Amino acid sequence: MSQPAFSDRVQRIKPSPSTAAAALARQLKAEGRDILSLTTGEPDFPTPPHIVEAAAEAMRRGETRYTNVGGTDALKAAVIEKFSAENGLAYEPAEVMASTGAKQIIFNALMATVNEGDEVIVPSPCWVSYPDMAMLAGGEPVIAETRAEDGFLLTAEALERLITPKTRWLVLNSPSNPSGAVYDAAAFQALGEVLARHPRIGVMSDDIYEHIIYDGRRFTAFAAACPELKDRTLTVNGVSKAYAMTGWRLGFCGGPAPLIKEMAKLQSQSTSNPSAIGQAGAIAALTGPKDFLAEMVGAFARRRDLICGRLEAIEGLSCTSPAGAFYAFPSCAGLIGRKTPERKVLESDWDVVRYLLDSVGVATVHGAAFCASPYFRISFATADEVLEEAGERIARACDALS
Predict the structure, then answer these.
(1) E-strand spans in 82-227?
(2) Distance CA 330, CA 374 (A)
């Protein structure tokens, strides 16, 4: 039987490495292995009860049918109020929409705007999907390397050097997955001064970790820091991280009406509307009580300090404490070139991650997946005792190297 022919565009991309790492961890657990999985960017807290009840009540009312492609009027109103109250951003209904997760928002925007050969600047370390989605749209991801000593923040000078006539988008993610980097207003404004000289470039600001921020820092939206660029900024957000609603698959955005119109047109021919039930839950999340956030962020801060302290104490590892999100991103440069007890030389962060999995059953994600080597990512969105045990196992594995 002949094999089907696959498109060039799908051959350009790879499966999500973080999803693949989580799937491998689940498989090994099912086979009876003692695995501590620190792969998934997912809060381990339950969805708040008032959100669950709002969705259940919507179902009881029969709100289980198709909605407008970009979301119900009620959800759009809640999104508009959220942007106004929390971010100081004013949008009209034609300037907001909802999708099946923030991931689809980003996908829609790139597919609606990127032509063959257009360039999309992505600061690294970056979320695994940004470069591949740019390539799927026919564009070329341009990876802007940042430095740990700069807090993994893109500088204005670095941005200026990378801009070409083909540049179509700059993607920003604050707080960042995987580094936890957080841009303040001044850092955004420095980038804005560069972008003001290049009117063709759009800014995609992924704010999905907005509420998960530490040490008294305040979140700033790019479009609020640079209001003169609001008309070419797409502000992306959702309910998955702050409200522990990853499986609800509900993202939303605010941006220029012409862009939103084209994104909605694309969505009408792909997934159509996001889940009506998920939309009901999102309305409750955005308009309901927020008191649980302080407790959740407090727990993440405690876990951050726990795992980063353990990692920093291990010879060969170096771990900067993240300013936001719920990931540690330690450098494993000090382990490269060392030998395992089986005399295998660790030549890359992939080798390090595989060694930790095989030798002590700790599943993580290698840094190259985030366009940054030699690092690896640990999600600390899990129980304290799991992180304690993981820290001990990683230390034991590193001690066994020669």
Answers:
(1) 96-99, 119-124, 140-145, 167-173, 202-206
(2) 9
Task: Looking at the structure, tell me whether residues 180 and 321 fall in a common domain.
Answer: no
Angle at which helix 102-113 crosses helix 257-268, to 10 degrees, equals: 100
Q: With the C-alpha atoms ordered 290, 291, 294, 296, is the resulting torsion angle positive or negative?
A: negative
- What pLDDT is attached to residue 1? 52
pTM of the model: 0.95
Residue that terminates a domain, selected from 268, 287, 306: 287
2 lies in a domain? no
Residues 300, 212, single domain; the answer is no
pLDDT of residue 116: 95
Q: Which domain holds residue 53?
A: 49-287
**28 and 77: one domain?**
no
The domain total for the chain is 2
pLDDT of residue 2: 67
In a domain, 299, yes or no: yes
The residue whose two tokens read 């700033």 is 220
Q: What 3-state class would DSSP assign to 99?
A: strand
Tell me the per-residue pLDDT of 329-383, one tens digit each, with 9 for 90 and over: 999 999 999 999 999 999 999 999 999 999 999 999 999 999 999 999 999 999 9
Query: Does the pLDDT value for residue 5 go beyond 90?
Result: no
- Residue 250 and residue 135 in one domain: yes
Q: State yes or no: pLDDT of 29 exceeds 90.
A: no
Query: Which strands sit side by side in the sheet containing 365-366, from one edge to the other?
Result: 327-328, 376-379, 365-366
